[in-house]
Design goal:
InterPro entries: Pec_lyase, Pectin_lyas_fold, Pectin_lyase_fold/virulence, PEL. With about 325 residues, the chain is mainly β. About 15% of the residues lie in helices and about 35% in strands.
Length: about 325
């Protein structure tokens, strides 16, 4: 199936909305699996670098953090922990997360303000069900692998909302909203960092880039799979450079100035050129590059995701309804310990 480019005829969005309502009861959506599944889909589920899969603080104690001090103390512990985060917490800087941790917001309004969740040289971390804002970076990974960010809402930070850099690897970002921000997500360490080659493998699915201007994400060197994401009113969607391989599959781009952007070199023989294969995406009222037939990689060689894949026509409704923190996520996750 080819990519679909839609014009701005007023009947098209209306018809799409009506059809989605008519067929809502007939289409198998990922809502049930999103509620019940406490394991990531994609690169964070793949074995590598001495870790079988991403389990966070499973099999460890369960503790509750109600202050920034408690959160920082628990996050730095060396043993596995599931840290339940309660209420609205305001801090004054960086919380460093050690390996084998799950950070889980209780309820749909748990928030961290002026607190950056920082991981450097660690592995096996899960971050779920949190609003994070007004930090330098909301979430930052350096030399870190096996991380799952799920059902979060990231906005209004000083630099990036989610930066995956310096040979970080095996990352999944799912059901997360990015908004009120300029430079959203960076998956590389720069244009001249060949040591990132073979790393930065990331899956992004069922996320909403809601008016986030750029870097949705910006990718260099890694193998990145973006599927079933919703893009709304962005300056550009996926930025490419430095021999990255991006598989963009069944995403819905709405009013995006440049859905797929070559950051530096249009010549595919140039070392700063990035590659993207665009498969069954929808482009509605978009400009710029919409249909890059470039090479990518076969995600199915590394993990199964067909059971989580939605038809592209249903992506706007499904993502808007289910993205971000939810009341049931914390309860289901704690019961699954």
């Amino acid at each position: 199936m080819a990519n679909l480019i839609m014009n701005n005829h007023p009947s098209i969005p209306l018809l799409a909305g009506l059809l989605s309502l008519v067929f809502a009861g007939l289409v198998c959506t990922p809502l049930a699996s999103a509620e019940e599944n406490n394991a990531p889909i994609g690169w964070a589920s793949v074995s590598g670098r001495g870790v079988e899969t991403t389990t966070g603080g499973a099999n460890g104690d369960v503790v509750t953090a109600r202050t920034a001090k408690e959160l920082a103390e628990y996050a730095s512990h060396t043993e596995p922990l599931t840290i339940l985060i309660e209420g609205a917490i305001t801090g004054d800087g960086v919380v460093k997360i050690a390996s084998d941790k799950t950070l889980l917001g209780l309820g749909e309004s748990t928030s961290l303000k002026n607190i950056e969740l920082n991981m450097s040289g660690v592995s096996n971390v899960i971050i779920r069900n949190l609003h994070i804002s007004h930090a330098r970076d909301a979430i930052a990974l350096r030399r870190t692998h096996h991380v799952w960010v799920d059902h979060c809402d990231l906005s209004e930070c000083g630099d990036g909302l989610l930066d995956i850099t310096h040979q970080s690897d095996f990352v999944t970002v799912s059901w997360t909203r990015f908004s009120k921000h300029h430079k959203t997500m960076l998956i590389n360490s720069g244009t001249s960092q060949p040591e990132d080659s073979g790393y930065l493998n990331t899956t992004i699915h069922h996320c909403w880039f809601d008016g986030s201007d750029t870097r949705n994400p910006r990718v260099g060197y890694g193998k990145v799979h973006v599927f079933n994401c919703l893009y709304s009113r962005n300056d550009y969607g996926i930025g490419l450079h430095s021999q990255c391989l991006v598989l963009a599959e069944r995403n819905h781009f709405d009013q995006v100035k440049n859905p797929i952007k070559q950051m530096y070199r249009p010549d595919p023989t140039d070392i700063h050129h990035g590659f993207c294969e665009s498969v069954e995406n929808v482009f509605q009222d978009c400009r710029g590059t919409q249909d890059d037939e470039g090479k990518s990689f076969s995600a199915k060689e590394f993990y199964e995701y067909d059971s989580a894949m939605d038809e592209v026509d249903h992506v706007p409704e499904i993502v808007r309804m289910n993205v971000g923190p939810k009341k049931h996520i914390g309860k289901a996750s704690v019961q699954g310990q």
